[in-house]
Specification:
By secondary structure, the protein is α+β, with helices and mostly antiparallel strands. 31% of the residues lie in helices and 23% in strands. 17% of the residues are buried.
Length: 111
């Protein structure tokens, strides 16, 4: 009897491609909106500081469908504000399906 072999291959949920550098430039140009969310929360918690990592899910029309944020800063209202700010970014469309783009920021109080 013939032997059956199974081949398992990981297929990305978002196989599309996008110029990640261009998306990062757009995010950096609009970092003021994120800083405003941070500064608003800083008024109630003056010890708030740290890194923030975001992952944008961008569709083929350039719309940001989803934003995932991970940060050690514990402020649900700030995170929701930042998600909303990132969803408003105007980015290029992805090709071949949705694309995932990671972004990193570091927030400290301004002197």
């Amino acid at each position: 009897a013939p032997r059956i072999r199974y081949v398992t291959r990981y297929v990305s949920a978002c196989p599309g491609t996008i110029d990640q550098g261009q998306v990062q430039r757009v995010a950096q140009m609009n970092v003021g909106a994120l800083r405003a969310c941070y500064n608003r929360e800083l008024r109630t918690n003056n010890t708030l500081r740290g890194p923030l990592r975001a992952q944008l899910k961008i569709n083929t029309s350039g719309r940001i469908e989803d934003v995932e944020i991970s940060t050690p800063m514990r402020s649900p209202s700030m995170i929701q504000c930042m998600k909303a700010a990132l969803r408003r970014l105007q980015v290029p469309a992805s090709r071949g399906g949705c694309a995932l783009v990671p972004l990193s920021f570091n927030f400290t109080p301004a002197n």
